[in-house]
């Protein structure tokens, strides 16, 4: 799959397909603030235009990835069984550990620094509510969708469920924007205490994990079970 972009313009490809096929493209997209997980169906040219970015500059950066592409083998090439196992063990597990822990830390920071102008007011509640929805979503994947995929059950049931879960992924995109806004893009104020700094660095890592997780499902795993 990785070779399909050689010699053709990347701007006419979807950012989800590029992220799934070009090792390192996800880092470039993160750097430019392109939401390749939830908006993976946008063409690179459209995604750049939406954010008033130079598509030439992004293409140039991606070209560097393209030259090293042959040296790495991505998760996108894994078989379905190991890929599902990787998603559950690496990402579902990390979210179940990370969200409650960061919500607790946020409650502490919000209480101790309530009078500070930059306090992330409401962050703990945002994390708790988001985790409640995400945990239910992951449960549906683990109990229903993934077993059906592993049993290779086709028919309308799997694509219908994929449509529902893909729609739920849009909530992750909104959450990422909200977290970024509430935390000044995960930048603590200069006088922030250690807990506050830990909270923001933990959130930045959580957001990276969320993007990778949704990207692997939306752009790599799910398309294997949906007719084009
Ligand atoms: Fe998942
Ligand atoms: Fe999911």
Distance, first to last CA = 16 Å
Q: Order of helices and strands, N to C?
A: HHHHHHHH
How many distinct domains? 2
Number of strands: 0
Strand content bin: under 5%
Ligand inventory reads: fe (ii) ion
- Rg for CA atoms: 19 Å
Tally of contiguous helical segments: 8
Q: Can you tell me the overall shape? A: globular
Low-pLDDT ranges: none
Multimerization state = single chain
As a percent range, the share of helical residues equals: 55-70%
Query: What average pLDDT do the residues reach?
Result: 88
- Helix- and strand-based class? mainly alpha
Report on the biggest sheet. none
Protein model, in words:
By secondary structure, the chain is mainly alpha-helical. It folds into two domains: 2-75, SP0561-like; 78-225. The protein contains eight helices and no strands. The two termini are 16 Å apart. The model has no long low-confidence stretch (mean pLDDT 88). Bound molecules: fe (ii) ion (FE2) (2 copies).
List the helices and strands and how they pair.
Blueprint: H1 15-21, H2 25-32, H3 44-50, H4 55-68, H5 80-112, H6 123-150, H7 157-182, H8 194-221
Helix pairs in contact: 1-8, 2-4, 5-6, 5-8, 6-7, 7-8
The protein binds fe (ii) ion (2 copies).
Residues 137, 141, 165, 169, 217 line the site of one fe (ii) ion.
Keywords:
mainly alpha, 2 domains
Summarize the structure.
66% of the residues lie in helices and 0% in strands.
């Amino acid at each position: 799959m990785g070779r399909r972009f050689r010699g053709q313009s990347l701007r006419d490809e979807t950012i989800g397909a590029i992220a799934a096929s070009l090792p390192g493209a996800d880092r470039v997209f993160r750097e430019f603030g392109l939401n390749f997980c939830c908006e993976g169906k946008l063409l690179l040219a459209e995604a750049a235009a939406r954010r008033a970015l130079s598509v030439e500059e992004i293409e140039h950066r991606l070209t560097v990835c393209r030259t090293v592409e042959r040296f790495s083998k991505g998760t996108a090439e894994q078989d379905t069984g190991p890929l599902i196992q990787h998603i559950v063990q690496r990402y579902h597990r990390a979210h179940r550990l990370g969200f409650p822990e960061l919500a607790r830390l946020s409650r502490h920071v919000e209480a101790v620094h309530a009078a500070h102008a930059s306090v992330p007011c409401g962050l703990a509640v945002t994390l708790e509510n988001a985790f409640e929805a995400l945990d239910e979503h992951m449960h549906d994947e683990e109990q229903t969708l993934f077993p059906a995929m592993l049993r290779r059950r086709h028919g309308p049931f799997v694509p219908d469920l994929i449509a529902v879960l893909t729609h739920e992924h849009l909530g992750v995109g909104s959450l990422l924007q909200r977290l970024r806004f509430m935390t000044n893009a995960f930048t603590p104020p200069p006088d922030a205490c250690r807990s506050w700094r830990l909270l923001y660095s933990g959130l930045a890592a959580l957001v990276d994990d969320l993007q990778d997780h949704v990207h692997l499902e939306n752009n790599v795993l799910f398309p294997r079970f949906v007719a084009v």
